[in-house]
Amino acid sequence: MNQVMGTAVNRKDGFAKVTGQATYTAEHALSGLVHGYLVTSAIAKGQIRLISTQKAEQAPGVLAIVTYKNRPKIFTPANDFRQSKLNEARLPLSDDQIHYAGQIIAFVVAETVEQARDAAQLIIIEYDIQPPLIHPQQTRYESLPDVEFSKGNVETATTAVTIEATYTTAKELHAAMEPHAIIAHWQEDSLTVYEGSQWVRLHQRTYAELFGLPAEKVRLVTPYIGGAFGSKCFPWAYSILCAAVARTIKRPLKLAVTRRQLTTNTGHRAATEQTLKVAAIPDGKLVALDHRVKTYTSFADRFIVDCTATTPVLYAAPNLRLQQHLGILNVPTPTYMRAPSENPGMWALESAMDELAWKLNIDPVELRLNNETTTHQRSNLPFAAKHFAECLRVGANQFGWRDRALQPRSLTRNGQLIGWGMAAATFPAMRGNTTVKVRLLPDGTVHVLTAGNDMGTGAYTMVAITAAAALGVPVEKVKVELGDSLFPDGGLAGGSQMTASLAPAVLQACQDVLQKANCTTANAACAALKQSGRAAFEAIASFAPKEDAQKWAFQSWGAHFCEVMVDEAIGRVQVTRWVSVMDIGRVMNAKAAASQVRGSVIMGIGAALMEECHLDPNSGYPVVYDLATYHYPTHADIPRIDVTFVGKPDLTFNSLGVRGVGEVGITGVAAAVANAIYHATGKRFRNLPITPEKLMA
């Protein structure tokens, strides 16, 4: 292998993106393209009493209007995660029932998007309104025995030093730069779908099942995605409806979901309420951990945010209890969002650990070091290649943690309060089945094809680096094509598993190419290729998780250290300094990996200080409606973020020793910010986000 792996490599897709050559979903140009527009419910619960489309049907350019009365046939999928999956189990326009505000109730098709939007305003709708369940306090919660876990008896820790508190997180929106969109194009009995998809082949199988087709009759095209964070893993109701209507009208049909509609039709991170009890003896050794969670789902589907997922991973406790409760509300269906369970779960756990450290008068770093667990306490499996302690020590040294003031409100700068905080980070190391094709051409160019895709995280570059390293060629000589179901199955771009799953398959395919050429280098193979008269040496290789999953627990680790400046007079918090140290196994691309951690930290700061989606108490509709009314961090809110990697390969995990990085970086961030605010102000905040009015209260 050459030495490109682990260095800072520029993005392969960077030039195409900055010059506008990268084609995103809504930008594909098809002859005869027509446009759709969604009509959504103005109430959160009830029944459609009347829906009149007569006037709208006569509007200029209108080609079709679809309601529950005339929806095209759609088959109900098996909803098997391995074969097909929907983001919302209830099919669109199934009946006249309304389960949440913003639910799709009609679909207008016209020659132009302006005509479709104008016609939508002419549809007359009357409802029989029922009182909705909107707020988490309104619903009844049921326990989830399949998620719960316990060992020992947490009630025996009554004589220990104890922290018990309730921590909450707000409903958050994905707010990706690229809005959701789809173009559906039927050609006789074959369907081509242009859509941002984090799992190309699963999308393909899902559409095939929905419309009664063999999978090979469906093509999914998604070369570029402008952000997803989990919201584009599976098809949404709007996608299914667009594809069904396109089949009826026999024209390629495009639907671009508006920013307003994104708040209700493409998922969100569900709000959570977590009660955590942490007990320890005076020297800091944990005696018990008791983690109880309340979260909600919708009446249209069941989605669980298991905030207890990381609790048995970080700290050893002889007595451990994990409980999860789920309520049902008249709200849109939640979905995956960057570290979907781990991020809110770590907010509560790392906040409680900080509170315990202050109560025991023990350094928060030392408290974590002294309670590190060597096994996953739920599976009882040992961790492979774990360097969590090194993350803590390196981060503390880089940040200058030993010099921190030991009392809250004791550090000031320019008349403002300064606080230091820290928290741990962790996320499970995932991997899945992938297949790639590698082709070596006579001019030394390497061509790699796979349906795995790049949602902006750097997969094009990672694949090129892997091939370049394996074949000994410059990265510039590697051409990568992603995001097309015509290519071999590239797996899921989610759960931080794309690199860990795809890179080993690329490596194996490259090695197979050299073996076919009976050469050890690409240069020698090219010479042999020219002599043979063949067009290329080609190999297809696959990666699948090994049986070692029964022997080891795989996890990525990290530590965050942050400094905040607090102006109490106006309730302003500024994050002024940040250090993150991560253990993600081998680092494939130092530039992209650090960028991923920085993006995660920024997202976590948003959750800590500003991100929340309120619902109108009367309509149940989100009161935010665009990127101006939904507050998230901008450049002015973010300091320099220093990122360091331990960089030790986890060769038990895969042949390259690489784990994912996309999600571990957000875990613990909100807690680190809140812990720093406590150090600065002496005020403990347990409800996110920590907004100015809370600071001033």
Quick overview:
The protein is an alpha+beta fold and about 700 residues long.
Largest sheet: 7 strands, mixed
**Radius of gyration based on Cα positions:** 26 Å
Q: Averaged pLDDT, please? A: 95
**Shape descriptor:** globular
What percent of the residues sit in helical stretches (DSSP H or I)? 10-25%
Number of helices: 16
Number of strands: 27
Whole-Å distance between the termini? Answer: 59 Å
| Beta-strand fraction estimate | 15-25%
Question: Structural class given helices, strands, pairing?
Answer: alpha+beta
* Low-pLDDT residue spans: none
Strands ordered across the widest β-sheet = 3-5-1-13-10-11-12
Assembly level: single chain
Entry keywords:
alpha+beta; six-stranded mixed beta sheet; 16 helices; 25% helix
